[in-house]
Design brief:
Structural class: mainly beta
Number of strands: 35
Radius of gyration: 24 Å
Mean pLDDT: 91
Low-confidence stretches: 1-11, 19-39
Strand content: 25-35%
Distance between the termini: 64 Å
Length: 526
């Protein structure tokens, strides 16, 4: 009897435990993502889950000298700051040396720097960097990626734990994707322009490594993807978890534990940069048209006006003889002539440069008179292939879900480089020229679109948010603080004093901004 009674009691305890687990799981599912993320650290590119939003944090709103806690010099690099509880981590490059740096949050003091085993060798765009990928941090380690080498793992005191050499992928502009974590894995997207042996398909892949040892756990090939610059996310939804990767023309989902492919959606640009964002019901992904166009019907006039300085004889045409350096096809007319991001990259070799100019001329020179008229340019510009895209995808699909699980899509106000930010069912998108758009996440309809005059020019930093405010940074170094909500309201703007092209980080009371030469902490007084 005692044995039976004990067995019955044990069974009852097991059932109660199972019921409690089910109850807690159900409650956790009901908790809005913003509540669930309050305690999450800014431990990867774009912070908690790649969202860009730090729920529960209160950095200063009126950013400026009065709340500048410290400003310290840092070497060149385009990686964004990533945080642990007490430290800040960056990657950088100086005189060909690739390095990882750690700073004290409270004082800004540099705690350590470690050089990679090799010198920088990766070929990157003139406006890029060989230290563009941001770190991944957990309780024990900091993991960094350099295209010239691969992965390096240190403890928080700078002691190397492991390293993993990875052949440098061939890309158009250099590697920029960052590592992300899932349970005991570190995941890297290694998209590549090289083909598989004896094949016309790409040798791109997504790979998971053991966080503790660096050993490969799984690898999944991505044969239809070429080089890309987006960082993936883990999307937690009602059916489980997906590893979501935005790449060349496609949004793909994989099982993050095994790498098994689940679904994909098409229609995206050849060049994808933004990080996807998600809530429980949808994942959202965006890409501009190749070259940076954010609207399906882009006004070609500013592009034509941007190359008129090459019209030396002032006859209203751009003749082949006038297409001299720094002539190129304009991608971003808001940038000055000669800026590396202004237009299509041109070869350094004079002969190849002339061949590239002939190719560009042929795009719109329909009457073969070796010149562009304004009429030819505008007509040809309007016939550019592809379109910008912001798409909302529901969970639960398999295979090609473009026509079955896409709830809505939009083709206007799409940034080229900055990632979107989702907060309380509004998607915020900041574009070159300082154009901020707010879109309803439920139906894709535009809520507002406003130009922020202080942010005119290029914007490469992704928006971040906390405490009911967005923090937006223009590449020329102005930060604008805008209230979240359905009505546009700029609260404050501040000139950082130097260029800034990286995404800020946020903790409980601070905003950390990397500029061209400094790392700056703006801190709310306690």
């Amino acid at each position: 009897m005692k044995c039976g009674a004990q067995e019955s009691k044990t069974t009852m305890i097991k059932r109660q435990t199972q019921l409690l687990i089910q109850l807690f799981t159900f409650i956790a599912f009901l908790i809005p993502p913003t509540m669930a993320e309050q305690s999450a650290e800014w431990n990867r590119f774009r912070g908690p889950h790649g969202s860009g939003f730090a729920a529960g944090c209160q950095p200063p709103v009126r950013v400026g000298k009065n709340c500048e806690a410290w400003r310290v010099p840092v070497p060149q690099g385009l990686s964004s700051p990533v945080l642990s509880q007490s430290r800040i981590f960056l990657t950088a490059t100086n005189s060909g040396e690739l390095m990882t740096l750690a700073f004290d949050k409270k004082s800004g003091r540099e705690l350590w720097r470690r050089a990679a085993p090799v010198k920088a060798s990766e070929k990157v765009h003139q406006a890029g960097s060989q230290a563009a990928s941001s770190a991944l941090v957990d309780e024990q380690s900091v993991i960094v990626y350099f295209g010239s080498y691969g992965l390096l793992c240190y403890d928080h005191d700078g002691n190397e734990l492991w390293n993993k050499e990875i052949p440098t992928p061939k890309t158009l502009y250099g590697m920029a994707t960052s590592p992300i974590g899932f349970e005991k894995l570190v995941i890297m997207v290694l998209d590549d322009d090289r083909n598989l042996p004896d094949s016309k398909l790409s040798c791109s892949k997504v790979v998971a490594f053991d966080k503790e040892t660096g050993k490969e756990v799984w690898k999944t090939v991505r044969p239809f993807s070429r080089s890309g610059w987006s960082t993936p996310i883990i999307w937690n939804h009602k059916d489980g978890a997906d590893l979501v990767v935005l790449g060349d023309g496609r949004l793909n989902a994989y099982d993050p534990s095994t790498g098994e492919g689940k679904w994909f959606a098409t229609g995206f640009s050849r060049e994808t940069i933004a990080v996807p964002i998600a809530n429980r019901d949808h994942v959202f992904a965006s890409s501009s048209r190749r070259g940076g166009d954010g609207d399906e019907d882009t006004n070609p006039k500013p592009f034509w006006d941007s190359i008129l300085p090459f019209d030396e004889n002032k006859n209203g045409r751009i003749e082949r003889s006038e297409m001299k350096p720094p002539f190129t096809f304009p991608f971003r007319p808001e940038l000055p002539l000669g800026h590396p991001g202004f237009g299509l990259p041109m070869p350094d070799n004079p002969k190849k440069r002339e061949e590239r100019v002939d190719w560009i001329l042929s795009w719109f020179d329909k009457d073969k008179d070796r010149a562009w008229s304004e009429e030819e340019f505008i007509k040809g510009f309007k016939n550019k292939p592809g379109k910008p895209l912001l798409m909302a995808v529901r969970p639960g699909g398999s295979g090609d879900v473009t026509g079955t699980h896409s709830t809505w899509s939009a083709n206007k106000n799409i940034p080229e480089i900055p990632s979107p930010l989702l907060h309380e069912d509004i998607i915020y998108l900041i574009r070159a020229g300082g154009v901020l758009a707010a879109t309803n996440a439920n139906d894709g309809k535009l809520i507002y679109r406003n130009r922020i005059s202080s942010l005119g020019g290029q914007c490469t930093a992704s928006p971040v948010g906390a405490n009911g405010h967005l923090y937006l940074i223009a590449s020329h170094g102005v930060i604008s603080v805008v209230a979240t909500g359905k009505e546009f309201k700029e609260i404050h703007s501040y000139d950082l004093g130097e260029e800034s092209e990286t995404t800020p980080a946020i903790d409980q009371n601070s905003l950390y901004v990397r500029t061209q030469k400094h790392l700056i902490a703006f801190r709310k007084s306690e």
